[in-house]
Amino acid sequence: MADRPTPKAWIDAIHPYVPGKAKSADGRELVKLSANENPLGCSPTVIDALAAAHSPALYPDPDAKELRAAIGALHGIDPARIVCGTGSGELLHGAVQAFAGTGDEVAFSRYSFSLYPLLAHKVGAEPVLAEAREYGADVDALLAAVTERTRVVLLDNPNNPVGSWLDAGEVARLHAGLSPDILLVVDQAYAEYLAPDLDDGGLALAAAHNNVLVTRTFSKAYGIAGERVGWATGAPALVDMLNRLRGAFNVTSGGQRAALAALEDQAFVRRSRQANSAVRARFADRIAMLGNHGLSIVPSEANFLLVLFEGALTAEAAMGALAEAGYAVRHLPGQDLPHALRITIGTEAQMDEVAAVLRREAEAAG
C-alpha cells in the first residue's frame, strides 16, 4: 500500500506550462516582450466597464448569455453555437479531454503552441508532432501523421511561436483529409491581427461540419489577457461537450463586462492591427539587415516575430543582452528552437531599441 495518493503516470510526467518572463535574473522589472500582450493596452471602454459598480458577492452569469450574443452578432454566429471559457486554454483543454484519452493520439505541427503537448498528456493521450515546412504547419505532414489512433488535430493559425499562417484552401484541404470522427481544432488566438482580406475559413468550416471547432481569445488584440476570456464555436454537439466540461461560473463578471466593452470598440482592434503590422515590418527590415551576421526572421502574421540566430551570436547570448537592456523575450529550447527567440512586437521605440541591441551584439560577436 502506498503511503500517499499516487497520481496517474501521465500526470506525474507533465511539466507545468512556463509563462514568459517579466523579470531579469537579478530581479529587475523588464519590458515584457515575452508574452505577446498588446503594447497598446486595451480600449478605454474596457477600463470604464471594469470600473463600473458591481457586486463581487454575486455569481456571474454562468452561460455568459450577453457576451455570447455580442460575439454572435459580430461574427454572424448563432449564440447557441458559442461557448465562453477562461481564455481559449480552458476550451482547448475541454476539446482534447472530450475526445482523447489513454491510448489515443493528438496531432499538431512540430513548432506549435507549447500548451498542446500538455493538453494531450493531461488526458493520457500521446502527442504526435508532424514535421514542419520552413517552421510552419505542413498539411501533407499533418495528414501523414494521422493514424487510426488519432482523435484530435490541433492547428494554431496564425501559429505560435512561428507566426506562420495557412490560407483557407490549405485549412480546407486539411479538414477534407481527416475522417469525420477526428476533431479538427483551429486555434485562432491571433486572428484579429490578420489583414482584413485574410481568412483561413475556419469559422465557415465550423458552421458547416460536425468535426470542426474554432477557438479565439480576448487576450491578444483586444488586450484583456488579465481577465482570461475566450470563446469557441462549432456544431451543437461540440458546444454541448465543452459546456459539460468547462468550469461552472467560469468567466467572471468583470471578464464578461470587459469582453463586451472590448467588442464594442472595433476601432481599437483596427488600431492595434495597423500598429502591429507597421512596427512588425519595420523591425523585420532591421533584422534582415543583419543577415550577414546569421540573423533572420520567419515571416509572421501575428504580433511577434521568430528571430533565428545561425551565426556567431547565439539566441541565449542575445537574450542575455536584451535582458541587460531591459527587455524580456522568449527563448524556446524546449520547443526544439534553441537557436531562436520569439519577440513580441512592442512600440516602435521599443523595437528600434531591441534591433539596436541585436545589431551591437551581432557585430561584436563577428
From TrEMBL:
Cited PROSITE patterns: AA_TRANSFER_CLASS_2
Enzyme class: transferase
Swiss-Prot/TrEMBL catalytic activity: L-histidinol phosphate + 2-oxoglutarate = 3-(imidazol-4-yl)-2-oxopropyl phosphate + L-glutamate
Name of a matching Pfam family: Aminotran_1_2
UniProt keyword Transferase present: yes
CDD domains: AAT_like (cd00609)
Matching Gene3D superfamilies: Aspartate Aminotransferase, domain 1, Type I PLP-dependent aspartate aminotransferase-like (Major domain)
Biochemical pathway: Amino-acid biosynthesis; L-histidine biosynthesis; L-histidine from 5-phospho-alpha-D-ribose 1-diphosphate: step 7/9
Aminotransferase class I/classII large domain span: 29-357
Cofactor(s) needed: pyridoxal 5'-phosphate
The protein, known as: Histidinol-phosphate aminotransferase
